[in-house]
From TrEMBL:
<keyword id="KW-0093">Biotin biosynthesis</keyword>
<feature type="modified residue" description="N6-(pyridoxal phosphate)lysine">
    <location>
        <position position="286"/>
    </location>
</feature>
<feature type="binding site">
    <location>
        <position position="286"/>
    </location>
    <ligand>
        <name>substrate</name>
    </ligand>
</feature>
<dbReference type="GO" id="GO:0004015">
    <property type="term" value="F:adenosylmethionine-8-amino-7-oxononanoate transaminase activity"/>
</dbReference>
<keyword id="KW-0949">S-adenosyl-L-methionine</keyword>
<comment type="similarity">
    <text>Belongs to the class-III pyridoxal-phosphate-dependent aminotransferase family. BioA subfamily.</text>
</comment>
<dbReference type="Pfam" id="PF00202">
    <property type="entry name" value="Aminotran_3"/>
</dbReference>
<feature type="binding site">
    <location>
        <begin position="320"/>
        <end position="321"/>
    </location>
    <ligand>
        <name>pyridoxal 5'-phosphate</name>
    </ligand>
</feature>
<comment type="subunit">
    <text>Homodimer.</text>
</comment>
<keyword id="KW-0808">Transferase</keyword>
<feature type="site" description="Participates in the substrate recognition with KAPA and in a stacking interaction with the adenine ring of SAM">
    <location>
        <position position="20"/>
    </location>
</feature>
<dbReference type="InterPro" id="IPR049704">
    <property type="entry name" value="Aminotrans_3_PPA_site"/>
</dbReference>
<feature type="binding site">
    <location>
        <position position="319"/>
    </location>
    <ligand>
        <name>substrate</name>
    </ligand>
</feature>
<dbReference type="InterPro" id="IPR015421">
    <property type="entry name" value="PyrdxlP-dep_Trfase_major"/>
</dbReference>
<dbReference type="InterPro" id="IPR005815">
    <property type="entry name" value="BioA"/>
</dbReference>
<keyword id="KW-0963">Cytoplasm</keyword>
<dbReference type="InterPro" id="IPR005814">
    <property type="entry name" value="Aminotrans_3"/>
</dbReference>
C-alpha cells in the first residue's frame, strides 16, 4: 500500500486537530473515500484506493456496518419530516418511542430517560444528577465520586475527574479537576468469584475507603465488566455485586457507564447483566445509533428522578441544544430494532470464539504480554508502548484498519463481520505484532 500523502492530507495537516494529536508533529491520517458494509475505502495516495476491514467499528459504534439499508431508510424518512427541533417545551415521536424502547430493554428499575449529545455528556449529567440527589436528601457534604483505578469515562471535565488520575489520559489537568476518590483497580480475570482471595482483598480495600469517606461520597461510578479506553481490561462480575452492596450500605448511588459495553458488546445486552446487578443511573451511547449520529442517554430510577424533582431547583439542571435530535433518535430506534430482531447473542459469541482462535497464536510471540477476549472484543497487550505509525501500517498492509493505543493492539469489530472477516482481523493483528513487535 502506498504511503504517499495526497493534497487532501496536506490540507488536513495544515488545518485540523485530530484526537490526542499534535499540530507540530501530527500522526499520519488516511483519507476515507467511501465505506460500505464492514469495509473502508481508503485513498492510496496515487489516485486509487484500497479497502480495509474496519476492525474498530469506528470507535465501537458502527455495529451494523456502513450504509446499512435499514438505518439509511430510517434517516431518510425522518429527514423528510424534520431534522431538528428544540427539546425545551417541545417533544416528538422519535424521542418518545426511543425512550420507551430503552426503558423496555434496560434493567427494570430504570424508568426515566435524559437524552444527551455524546457519551461524555451523559456521564456529566449522571454526576450532576447524583450530586443533586444528595442535596435533595439533605446530604450537602456528599460532593465526591468513588471509583476505581484504570477507568475512563470521557473527555469533558466531570468525566475526566473520574478517569484514572495517574495512568489515564488526563493527568495534565491534575489540580484543575474535582478531587475524587479512587480505589484499587479490580483484580483481572472475569471468572473470579467472591471467595477468591485477591477479590476479597480488593473488596476490603473498597469497603475501607467507602466507610472512611461515607459522608463525602455521592455515588460510585464504574465501567461494568470491561474498562475500555483505560486499558481494555476485563474483570469479574463479582466486583459489581460488591459495589452494589457498598452503595446500599452507605446511601450512595451506583452509576454504570455502559457507553462502550452496552448493546451486546460483552455478550449480554448490558454488561451489568453478567452480575445480576442493577444500577441507579445508567449511561449509554456509542452503538446506540449504530454509528450514524452522535447520541447518548442517561437513565435513572424513579426514586432518583422523584427525589431530584422534589428537591432544590425542582429540575435536572442540564439542557443540551441538540438533545433528543429527531434524526439521531429515529436512527437509534431503527438500530435497536435491527439488533434485537436478530440473534445478536449468538453472533457475538461466534465473534468471540473466532477472535479467541485467531489471536491465540499471538500468546507465543515474544513482544506479547497478554491476549484477552471478552464478547466481541479482542486485545493483544504488548510488553511496551505500541509504535503507532508502524503497527497501524503493518495491520493495514494485511487489509485491516485498527487504532492501537498505549501498549494495546485491539479490535471491537462490527457485529455483521463474517467468520472469515473475523479470522482476517485476528490474523492481521497477530501478523503485524509479529512483524513490528
Amino acid at each position: 500500500m502506498s504511503q504517499s500523502v495526497s493534497a487532501w492530507q496536506q490540507r488536513d495537516a495544515e488545518l485540523l486537530w485530530h484526537p490526542y494529536s499534535s499540530l507540530s508533529e501530527p500522526s499520519p491520517v488516511r483519507l476515507v473515500r467511501g465505506a460500505s458494509g464492514v469495509r473502508l475505502r481508503l485513498d492510496d495516495g496515487a489516485g486509487g484506493s484500497v479497502e480495509a476491514i474496519d476492525a474498530m467499528a469506528s470507535w465501537w459504534c458502527m455495529i451494523h456496518g456502513y450504509r446499512n439499508p435499514v438505518l439509511d431508510a430510517a434517516l431518510k424518512r425522518q429527514v423528510d419530516e424534520f431534522s431538528h427541533v428544540m427539546f425545551g417545551g417541545l417533544t416528538h415521536e422519535p424521542a418518545i418511542r426511543l425512550a420507551e424502547r430503552l426503558v423496555e430493554i434496560t434493567p427494570d428499575p430504570l424508568r426515566h430517560v435524559f437524552f444527551c449529545d455524546s457519551g461524555s455528556v451523559s456521564v456529566e449529567v449522571a454526576i450532576k444528577l447524583a450530586l443533586q440527589y444528595q442535596v435533595a436528601r439533605g446530604n450537602t457534604g456528599r460532593t465526591r465520586m468513588l471509583t476505581v483505578r484504570g477507568g475512563y469515562h470521557g473527555d469533558t471535565f466531570a468525566p475526566m475527574s473520574v478517569c484514572d488520575p495517574v495512568n489515564g489520559m488526563h493527568s495534565l489537568f491534575t489540580g484543575a479537576l474535582q478531587d475524587q476518590l479512587f480505589g484499587p483497580q479490580p483484580p483481572a480475570d472475569f471468572d473470579r468469584t467472591e471467595a477468591d482471595p485477591e477479590l476479597q482483598s480488593w473488596a476490603d480495600a473498597m469497603a475501607e475507603l467507602a466507610a472512611a469517606h461515607s459522608d463525602e461520597i455521592a455515588a460510585i461510578i464504574v465501567e461494568p465488566i470491561l474498562q475500555g479506553a483505560g486499558g481494555m481490561y476485563p474483570y469479574s462480575p463479582a466486583c459489581l455485586r460488591v459495589l452494589r452492596q457498598l452503595a446500599d450500605r452507605h446511601g450512595f448511588l451506583l452509576i454504570f457507564d455502559e457507553i462502550a459495553t452496552g448493546f451486546g458488546r460483552t455478550g449480554t445486552l448490558f454488561a451489568s447483566e453478567h452480575a445480576g446487578v442493577d444500577p441507579d443511573i445508567l449511561c449509554v451511547g456509542k452503538a446506540l445509533t449504530g454509528g450514524y449520529l452522535t447520541l447518548a442517554a442517561m437513565l435513572c430510577t424513579s426514586d432518583v428522578a422523584q427525589t431530584v424533582s422534589n428537591g432544590p431547583g425542582a429540575a435536572l439542571m442540564h439542557g443540551p441544544t441538540f438533545m433528543a435530535n429527531p434524526l439521531a433518535c429515529a436512527v437509534a430506534l431503527a438500530s435497536l430494532d435491527l439488533l434485537l430482531s436478530q440473534d445478536w447473542a449468538t453472533r457475538v459469541a461466534q465473534i468471540s470464539a473466532g477472535l479467541e482462535a485467531g489471536l491465540s497464536r499471538a500468546r507465543d510471540l515474544p513482544a506479547v504480554k497478554d491476549v484477552r477476549v471478552i464478547g466481541a472484543v479482542g486485545v493483544v497487550q504488548l510488553g511496551g508502548p505500541v509504535d503507532l505509525p508502524r503497527m497501524t501500517e503493518a495491520v493495514l498492509q494485511r487489509g485491516v484498519w485498527v487504532r492501537p493505543f498505549r501498549d494495546l493492539v485491539y479490535t471491537m469489530p462490527p457485529y455483521v463481520c463474517t467468520d472469515d472477516e473475523i479470522a482476517t482481523i485476528a490474523a492481521a493483528i497477530t501478523g503485524a505484532v509479529e512483524e513490528v513487535g
